[in-house]
TrEMBL record, chains A, B, C, D:
InterPro entries: Homeodomain-like_sf, HTH-type_Tx_Regulator, HTH_TetR, TetR-like_HI_0893_C. It holds the Pfam family TetR_HI_0893_C. GO terms for molecular function: DNA binding. Residues 31-50 bind DNA. The keyword Transcription regulation does not apply. This is TetR family transcriptional regulator. Gene3D superfamilies: Tetracycline Repressor, domain 2. PROSITE patterns: HTH_TETR_2. It comes from the Bacteria. Residues 8-68 form the HTH tetR-type domain. Keywords: DNA-binding. PANTHER family: ACREF/ENVCD OPERON REPRESSOR-RELATED, ACREF_ENVCD OPERON REPRESSOR-RELATED. The keyword Membrane does not apply.
DNA sequence: GATGAATGAGTTTTCATTCAT
DNA sequence: TATGAATGAAAACTCATTCAT
């Protein structure tokens, strides 16, 4: 049915190679030629799909971020209770970060270094809108502390990135049980 | 009294320029020539003080990390109660990160990208030893949740970095009051 | 018939430029940029054909040495008498050194300075095997003095290099007749 | 008696360091800073004794060459018979090259690469005048073949350099007996 | 005389990007 | 669409030489 064009295959290979190489070496230490080689493509071919290196980074960022967001709100329903909804989203994000390590690491690199255009970065922020709305409701309902979304994010979602980095460095292993305990910490930090 | 040698002045200028430029562009996008220019020095002069670019990064990292640690434990006394001690350290770190933005941003870059030698990074980790010990005591005394130091760090210290980044991006301002509220979130997340 | 690729032409130009410039200035005093300029090529292009400067030197050495060897044993037949065979080889080598001055000078540089990898140098030594075998036979047959191949080489082949250098410096001219006389000196020095 | 000035000591150290380093790395791969370090002297000090790097090379060359020449004609007396005189000189030179390896190697480098000014090189050639005169006499007396001094040199003196290089590379050992046999080869090559 | 610090000019090498095919 | 070859511009780093002390 779905005929995936040869073009699409090549583009996908380029995106994948970019993620892999940037994760291991950083953006500026990743030459276009290596990306091309890993994608089994000529360097010149990259420029058929992307305007330049910066554009490649931006596009990959946007795509991975979109994938992340859609994952984050899987099975989430705005009709859920605040706690239930938050737990669902938190667990989704944690699962993504701990299981889709490559993509999560890439996002972490993008969010912590000046490799992405400010514009694209702003776009990326919008993706968490539903979570922000949930938080607003929680505050109105007197369930959550009256904290700005930035602070709420800092103490609940951002820590997962640290755990991912640590696990990826081999310093610890985050299993099901550890995840449950981490969730409690996250919830305790923001619940009233 | 203290005669600061001309050499020391030049070295300091180089360290400062490195921090500034790496913060703005990232390590690999910061050429030695620009560091030299900002420090009002010839590129060749850098190599009188540092073996190469990697060595420059490592040395600056170690120095800033040491500064950070000494700041983190200012006025801290292992004889304090767990909560009192934790608050002291947390506030120190937050103050450092929100006031000494340049240095904190630099550490954040170092900790989130592969720009520092693994060896130097390991050295840097040792600096938080007293905090880890405090946590161990807290767990024994039944005051803290039985979480690994990694998780405790992720939910109390790591979030501050996010707030710093956000504030630095101009998206929000963290004042005294916001800091107090953030501290509560940190403490709530780990206290039993 | 034989279509010589554009690549081959460029590589040849680089090899030729290397030989010329190294002969005139020495290896370390010959910058890649000058080699590129003489070959009408961008400096970066050199690195499409050679891994680095050392590799360039090694490859050129190996090629010229191979050319030298094949020239040295042209029309030589192991079935010849010792004297006949020796004369043939000696004359070949002399002709090469006095006529293919550029290539011979280059080999002389390589053999007298630490510019070539030890490995490549060892490879180069193997090329004279047939001459060494001829000498062994000559000693067994009681025609040659019982000297080690090193000494035999020193007094018969090595002197040609000196004549080449002198002629190249414009201090003398070695014509057909002078060559014959030189050959006699060479043969007299090792024959019993 | 002979008070060797501090200056002289320093200059000697510089000369010695130059010889050592040039032998091991070649002239252009030997930085002034390393010469200074090996001579326990500041780089700037070199310029008190030598105008520049080229001048340093030239002066060292001239001095070593002079030492070589004086060694070559030790105990030689123009009144000796041609053969006796030649043997004396040949043995002197061989002894120098095989025993004063450092200095001989240095001369070999100078004579085989473009590191010395043409002018200094010309100066160096003059040192062998007495040997050339001996040869002229030998030719007149019908003892030597009617060959130009260049050819005579090529087949008698120049080979010693090869043996020195080989011995220095550890490929063979030239003992007293081997030297005698080598001398015979040298003499046979030029005697009538 | 002696030097440590400093540097301008130059070295090797890399890489994002283009272009003829 | 796809590419291999080519390169200008710039990177990290070196070094002969100078100069204030």
């Amino acid at each position: 049915m779905k005929a995936i064009s040869k073009s699409q295959i090549k583009r996908d290979a380029l995106v994948k190679a970019t993620i892999c190489l940037v994760n291991n070496n950083g953006f500026h230490a990743t030459p276009m030629s290596k990306i091309a080689k890993m994608a089994n493509v000529s360097p010149a071919t990259i420029y058929l799909y992307f305007k330049n290196k910066q554009d490649l980074a931006n596009q990959v960022y946007m795509e991975v971020k979109a994938e992340f967001s859609s994952f984050a709100f899987k099975d989430y329903d705005p009709g859920m209770s605040v706690e239930e909804g938050f737990q669902k989203i938190w667990m989704n994000i944690a699962t993504f970060k701990l299981r889709e390590v490559d993509h999560a690491l890439f996002l972490s690199q993008c969010d912590n270094t000046p490799m992405i255009d400010e514009e694209s970065r702003q776009q990326g922020l919008k993706h968490l809108e539903p979570l922000v709305e949930l938080w607003e409701r929680g505050k109105k309902e007197g369930i959550l502390k009256p904290l700005s979304p930035f602070v709420l994010y800092a103490f609940t979602i951002y820590p997962i990135t640290f755990l991912m980095n640590i696990e990826n460095g081999g310093l610890c292993k985050v299993d099901e049980q550890a995840l449950e305990k981490a969730y409690v910490a996250a919830w305790d930090s923001i619940k009233l």
